[in-house]
């Protein structure tokens, strides 16, 4: 699965076909998980991302959203403390890897790496969830990295 966060949320399956993720809460949940691919994201943090200061009315609301994500083909691991998105290729993570590699690369290679990194951007970072307070720090960090890559 490939997930794009450097613009509006974009999801593609392993064959490259677009996967439609409908609903703001579902898109927010997937975005929060995709920011930490391969790591367990605590349930409390996911609730904060999706509902902010208005927690859900029922205790199983998060589990219901996770079930909906699984129905559209998203592989999620459950743990006692949260959920993990395994085996996803996320453009934001790739962008950070390329910018980090460029810092120590020779001049010619640096230009190639930074160009590849900047070409991953399709619009504002986390464009679908940019209004949510939970994502503001992530957006600021990605924008700072983008700015440093253009200099």
UniProtKB/TrEMBL annotation:
The keyword Transcription regulation is annotated on this UniProt entry: yes
Family: Belongs to the AfsR/DnrI/RedD regulatory family.
PROSITE patterns: OMPR_PHOB
Pfam families: BTAD, Trans_reg_C
Keyword Transport applies: no
Protein name listed in UniProt: Winged helix-turn-helix domain-containing protein
The entry's keywords: DNA-binding, Transcription, Transcription regulation
């Amino acid at each position: 699965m490939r997930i794009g966060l450097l613009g509006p949320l974009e999801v593609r399956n392993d064959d490259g076909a677009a996967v439609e993720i409908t609903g703001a809460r579902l898109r927010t949940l997937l975005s929060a998980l995709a920011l930490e691919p391969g790591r367990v994201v605590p349930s409390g943090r996911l609730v904060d991302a999706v509902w902010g200061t208005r927690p859900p009315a029922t205790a199983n609301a998060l589990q219901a959203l996770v079930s909906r994500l699984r129905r559209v083909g998203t592989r999620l691991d459950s743990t006692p403390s949260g959920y993990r998105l395994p085996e996803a290729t996320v453009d934001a993570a790739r962008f950070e890897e390329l910018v980090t590699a460029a810092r120590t690369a020779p001049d010619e290679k640096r230009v190639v790496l930074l160009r590849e990194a900047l070409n991953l951007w399709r619009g504002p970072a986390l464009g679908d969830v940019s209004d949510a307070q939970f994502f503001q720090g992530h957006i600021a960090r990605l924008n700072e990295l983008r700015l440093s890559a253009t200099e």
